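Please, is this right?
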Amino acid sequence: MRIAALALGWLYVAVIVWLSLTPSPPHVDIEGSDKLEHFLAYGVLMFWFGVLYRSARARIGWALFCVALGVALEFAQRATGYRSFELADMAADALGVLAGALAALSLPRAAGAAGKETP
C-alpha cells in the first residue's frame, strides 16, 4: 500500500512538472485562478508527502523539495519562451506548501501512512 501511495505522489510531481511546462495547460477562466491553482497544487503535494512521512526531519525535507520545485519550474518556464516567470507564482507555491504541511501536522499520528514510515 505504501509503495502505491509513494508512486501516486511521484506521479503527481510529474503532473505538476508537465502542467508547468506544457505550452497550453488547462486553464480555469476565473480572476486569480492561476495563484489558487499554484496554492492548491503545492498544498496537496506537501500534504500527500507530509502524511506519508511523519518525522519532522522528513517533512522539512519535503517542504524544501516542494518549494525548490516551484522555484525551479518558474525558471524553467521563463526558459521555454512560451511560459511566463512570476514571483507571485513562487509565493503561491510556498504558501501552499505551508498550508499542506500544517494540514498534515493537524492529523493524529494514528492516521499516518499505511505501513512502516521511512525517513
